[in-house]
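Morning. Coffee machine broken again, so started the prediction first thing and wrote up yesterday's gels while waiting. Chain of 812 residues, entered below exactly as on the submission form.
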Amino acid sequence: MAAFLVQDIRHAFRQLRKNPGFAVIAVLTLALGSGATTVIFTVVSGVLLKPLRYAHPESLVTLHVQAEKRADRWGFSYPDFLDCQRECRSFEGVAAWTYGGATVSAPGQPEYTDGRLISSSLLSVLRIPLVQGRSFNPADDHIGATPVAIISTRLWQSRYGANPAAVGMSLSYGGKAYTVVGIAPSDFQLDGDADVFTPLGQATEPRMHWRAAYFIHVVARLRDAVTLPRAQAELRLMSARLAKQYPDSNTDITLVPHPLRSELVQDVRPTLWLLLSAVSLVLLIACVNVASLLLTRVVSRHHEFALRSALGAPRARLFIQCLIESSVLGICGGSLGLVVAALGTGPFLRFWPDRLPRADEVQVDWRVLLFAIGTAILTALVFGLIPAFRANRSAIEQSLRARSRTIAGNARRPLSGFVVSQIALALVLLSAAGITGRTLMRFASLDPGIDIHGALSARVALSPGVLSDPARTRVAWRELVENMKTAPGVQTAALTDIVPMREGENVISYRATASAAPWTHAPEALASAVTPDYLQVMRIPLVRGRFFNDNDRLGNSQVVVIDENMATHAFPREDPVGKLLWVPAFGDRPVQVIGVVGHVRHWGLAGDDLSSVHDQCYYPLAQVPDHLVRFFSSVLSVVVRTQIPPLNAVDSLQRQTRGATADQSLYEIRTMEQLARASLARQRFLLLLFAIFAGLALLLACVGIYGVIAYLTSQRVPEFGVRVALGARPADIVQLVLRESLTIIVAGVAIGLLASLGAGRVLQHLMPGAQTAQGPILAAVLPTLIAVALFACYIPARRAGKVDPGISLRSE
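Came back before lunch.
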């Protein structure tokens, strides 16, 4: 048996060497389809399928807060975290972290550095060993403890020269001296890179004591033999107890566990599965293309197969031989596709529009190798079985008596089916590209609510020396704005805690009446603290009333400006100006509405409509209470309107920012145009990929249609010769071929239309906001597809119209 198999493999290679053109086209077609599919699968495997790099990652969960009438919130309050850490018995350990960052003043030159505040249990829960030193212990994790820090390997190398004695040295961070107690491994990340880790329990921010402040990420590790449903049941009981004990903040609040891996990749999971589905259609078209080529070869070899059967070759042997030939093609194409994947995965990751979670774990590993091998075998079966069955059904006597041209009739049906399949699949991808393009056009045409041209935003790191005194900090705020305004090319500048279309939010609850109902049922609004020139910088329209001025400061009446959405919801059919709002975040006393402005698409051009929070309000930065001044300084941003291209003003703005002690800086500098474009980056990325996939599908379908129609017309040369001899004109032959081809094309279009409707629903589910009204899309796509298909048919039809009847009849 092994000898026969080796013999058949050698015979398959000899057959392919005898037809190098066929072999090259088939292998390249399969390599194109399998290579693109393997690239996407490599990313899917690394991001979605591969276990996390932590020890026993299946037991790691993240905890969310779920409100009865609101979506899940990633954040936890610090008091709820402490209760969970003390009381939950389902978890081996519970840990927390949140974002931070400050200026590192020494050793080295002052520079803003990203940081994280972590609980003392975090590294032990994640089971992450340090490069050197120790982790935090419970004694470090409370107010008043000795300031200690863990630094990243990158900071250890750049600031301490990788000195082994760095543990125990001092680090000046945020104006405070910390003792370095450990070095984190180079691959340790918490939602991005960070260089300084400090104890969360040492934070003195007031929100650390608020149960309604959901800003803490919580990670836990399940105990052995404890299931997720069991932990969920315990958290539900704990949530009920907290709701009774703290009704103002915890009513209708449930603590919910989710697998940590799902949490890390939830934003990109739909996109990756969508891309894998789309590229699989390209691979399927490639398989159908090669199947049609193989079938034409099998039909042309009927005489050979019949002769071998007559000489005693078993039918099973012929079947296996054809299947081996297709398998050789599949393996060669799959191997070349694996090379394409190895070379193309890196560029694909760099092309990804934003930060791809777990991107450093994406690589060609055993999962990808198994996928490539499985794809090669599956594709060989897909495009090899029909030709193999066809070869096995040869009628010996009929085949030996007839010439090869007369045998083609029975092959028309499967070949026509291949053409129909290619057209239908190509139409699905063209329709998906049209939906994505139409969606992108709609989002790009939306009014962001601000003038994005000529505006710049940047985060600000204030001098650590001014942060200890609220009065000095307020002076630093004013000086910063005034210095910015004197920079060359700057029209005006303002400060804000959040910037539209950039990461960062501050969602608060509000009421238009002094109701006593729990605040968990109150509506919510996005709140932003700004300086008076903010409206002028962003050019947000003032609808009625006024905006802030220098008199709106601490000690005077608290005021607020709301957007049109909030005005409609809070004060329907009333003039909001002069009305009062009750906002717990602003204190016990109500605040007065002094103006109404236009709505800003803060969550991005694509994401604003999908947000659960549509109301917006603004309040003066100068009215922030003293105990919050340091916190607001840590999230402060500057927005600037310029008379010159904004990026040309960056150097002068940096110089104006340095301050008297030369330790202030701007970072994360972006123009508002860049932020607006970035908010559509995912949609633009999908459109480009779908356009590439649709173009490949159209090209492969065109080649496949041409090959099939050319073969079928070549088998009808005698018929065409008779028609011409009886008086048919060449144009009549062309029309005959095109008319029959059009029937096949229409069948493919009809099936493709039905499939496109289903694909539209899938796109709407995986890409929220997708415009799935396919009438205009199909009106643009169908003529293109039909024209390309008819062009592929026209070339062999035109060749058939030039048949010489004398030559064709003599050949018979």
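DSSP finds 25 helices and 21 strands in the chain. Going to sketch it on the whiteboard this afternoon.
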